[in-house]
Design a protein that fits this description.
The structure is a homodimer of 259-residue chains.
Chain A (H helix, E strand, L loop, with lengths): L33 E3 L2 E3 L1 H8 L5 H12 L5 E6 L4 H13 L4 E5 L20 E5 L2 H10 L3 E5 L6 E2 L9 E5 L8 H6 L2 E4 L11 H20 L7 H15 L3 H11 L1
Parallel strand pairs in A: 3-4, 3-8, 4-5, 6-8, 6-9, 7-9
Antiparallel strand pairs in A: 1-2
Helix pairs in contact in A: 1-7, 2-7, 3-6
Chain lengths: 259, 259
């Protein structure tokens, strides 16, 4: 929120400007109640019903993980060919606290992408997109600055970026990098440091370094990495409980009947 | 160098303690003259003879690379099974300025390791070892502190390590991590941050993150990463020239005959 103030001491009248707030789309997709066979379950109810079925050990792990979770930075992969690379990027992202990930499936060779969402990605919010424009517009509507990793046209060194601001970091495909369309939609081009003879990093290495850099940048600037709101933390707890127990849907439905 | 001094102002006699210096083995293997068919070529002569055959572009690249080169941190891989992983680690190390690398070949499945030294590794000082003890003793003789990456027994977070001190960072094999023998020889156990549900990083990702961390740590503590001595820089320039031109050996030998 911004205002224009004058000090009472200088005698000018207190004045507040009109505040124009752009309504942002929420970044966490779990805030809405969960819909199961015509019934809607809010996060608090899911936690109450499924909580007793989640082991103490798992609950500890979930809490520790949520302490370091963020939606402020989100990885985007555009047109990757290799599913192994996508999985590696998702795994690094998850391990370094990034809750969401966006996959733009523009490579014709990348048909079975839905299978990518299985595995370590179980804990992430995966967003699959069929076009670059669609993905980038959705991210902009959520307030993200679009940062394209690219070595062309004098990109800014990654060390100059403030990752405490909402940032979507885009990695292009293994052969050509990010597309011209993406570059035209991006707010900035950023480069990962390359100090040696090697002219490029493997995509999974480039992504991991960027994720680590952003994590360290955030901690050094503001003292913490994880920054979920109370509502996001509750919603993710509910989602993780749902993904941690067997047959969560039937259990939730039965709990309503039992009432 | 350490001494014990009293200020002349307090009247006490000037006193200097005996200095005990442990003689360290040099870390750069290129300082000695190059031996070719009975002739010995010091770095300065190699630069003088081969310099005119190296393109201006390549010389620029070599100089830029040497600005960011260091022997102060060196990666060690112990018993890795997968040659692709070894190559990936070497590539990340090269790209982030680490001039040397040590490979301990204790895995019986890793027979053709010599081929690993080809490729992007062309620019690195590769050291192949047949036993863990042999490698670690050599590194200790060069003044390196041995840091074993490990998740066991409460390792220190990597953020607590001062990478401006000579450090050999050891990565264990894909399945079991570093060996008990290595742990018994190590000075410290260090852990890479793991903030999510994933319990481990792929070895190539773990190594890249560590290399990036050490690079950033060095820059933030002392303002620079590259720290070659003048002699090391000259020796590496000679080595890179040697590796940049065709038939460097015959050219050097002919230059002596021509004198």
């Amino acid at each position: 929120m911004r205002g224009s103030f004058s000090s009472p001491l200088d005698g000018a009248p207190f004045q507040q400007t009109r505040i124009i707030t752009r309504i942002m789309q929420p970044r966490c997709p779990h805030l809405e109640p969960l819909h199961i066979e015509g019934e809607y379950f809010p996060p608090a109810e899911i936690i109450k019903v499924l909580g007793p079925l989640v082991t103490v050990e798992r609950k500890k792990r979930i809490n520790a993980t949520l302490d370091h979770r963020t939606y402020t930075m989100t990885p985007v992969m555009e047109g990757l060919y290799d599913r192994g690379n996508v999985s590696a990027v998702l795994r690094s992202g998850e391990a370094l606290g990034y809750q969401s990930a966006h996959i733009i499936q523009t490579s014709p060779n990348f048909k079975k992408a839905k299978r990518v969402t299985q595995g370590a990605e179980k804990w992430l919010d995966m967003h699959l997109w069929e076009s670059t424009a669609e993905c980038i517009h959705a991210l902009k509507a959520q307030g993200y600055k679009i940062l394209a990793t690219s070595l062309e046209d004098r990109p800014r060194p990654m060390a100059e970026i403030d990752f405490t601001e909402p940032s979507a970091l885009v990695f292009g495909n293994e052969k050509d990098g990010v597309s011209p369309e993406l570059l035209s939609l991006a707010d900035e081009r950023v480069a990962i440091p390359m100090l040696g003879f090697s002219q490029s990093f493997n995509i999974s290495v480039a992504a991991a370094l960027s994720f680590y850099h952003a994590y360290r940048d955030r901690v050094s600037r503001q003292g913490y990495h994880g920054d979920l709101t109370t509502a996001e933390r509750e919603a993710l707890t509910a989602t993780y409980y749902f993904r941690s127990v067997g047959s969560p849907g039937p259990i939730l439905l039965r709990s309503r009947i039992a009432d």
